[in-house]
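Researcher: I'd like a structural prediction for the single chain below. Treat it as a standalone chain; there are no partners to consider.
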Amino acid sequence: MKDECIYEEGTPSLLTYQLMIVIVIMAVLAAIIIPKFQDQSRRSKEAALKSDLSQVRTAIATFQADTGFYPHLLSDLAATSAPTQGYDSTATLQSITAANWHGPYITGSLPTDPVSGSAFTYTITAPGVGNVASSATGNDLAGSAFSTY
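Model: Treating it as a single chain, here is the predicted structure.
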């Protein structure tokens, strides 16, 4: 007895159709999932930016509460000895009493803006003395300007 083939010669087999369907399903799933992970690096930088800004702003507020003045430079927050000068609210440099300084206010080095890779923008002019902001330009993934963080 001769084995008879269910499929005619020259026509694709059922296995080929099944394989094509599996490949199409995998392509559709990849098209849905991959974009969600592509933005993950940027999302983590944006989250780190918000956290770093909060940390620096808290350090500035503590420095100001202790000394009565805003830091002359942002690096004064990580200094291991009392800085000699700080800004008052009118952007005038004043002498800091070393006994009032209880730093360093940031352990280690001062963080940089994780989005731009540059130093934060620190305002030393009135009326915004002591304000710190992102140095990144543009908007985050949600459409908010980095300058509003």
